[in-house]
Amino acid sequence: MPSLLLVVFILQVLIHLANTVGAQVINDLLWTLYNKLPTSTRDSVLESNKLRAQALLLKRELMATSSQDEFAKWAKLRRQHDKVVAQYDEKANSLKSFQSSFTQATTVLRWLGTNGLRFVLQFWFARRPMFWFPRGWLPGYVEFLMAFPRAPRGSVSIQIWGIACATVVQMVGAAVAAGWILVREKKVTGKAKKMGMQADSSRAAREEKKEL
Q1: Can you give the pTM of this predicted structure?
Q2: pLDDT-based confidence at 121, cuts 50/70/90?
Q3: Closest by CA position to 119, among listed 27, 8, 45
């Protein structure tokens, strides 16, 4: 059985990732993965994508056809386009209704698996010490805060450990994001300088040709 310390830490990491990525992105990813499986909506999604591609193709052909010079062809393409769009809208609306129910279910399950599980663990192990401080290391009021709300005096409660884990995860996440932004800016700046040097060299070459 994994350590409760590790479980709480991993749970805080998952909560941070979910909050950072965003609920909409997670729901869209789960919906895509769900339709990759042999589910009841897989065929409907494939058919909807096929109708959408057909509608876009017909629209391009319709825009490339003159309604005055080639009216018969234009009218035929128009009828085909409208028919495919109507079929696509009907299929998309039925899928949208199911996707809404799917999103609600995944949102509830995601909350139960992250924040809900955190509340359950904090309630169930409220009296269990995560670890102990050596006797006399901390003042009495600090020991009281570390054990809040119901852990033994001189220990760290699961609530305080969870807060500490969340703080560390947020700090590490912010540091990683800042480092990634700095690296990206350096790459962009390097490319801009390189393009500027190439432009200067080409400009100097043109001026030399003019002087000759």
Answers
A1: 0.71
A2: very high
A3: 8
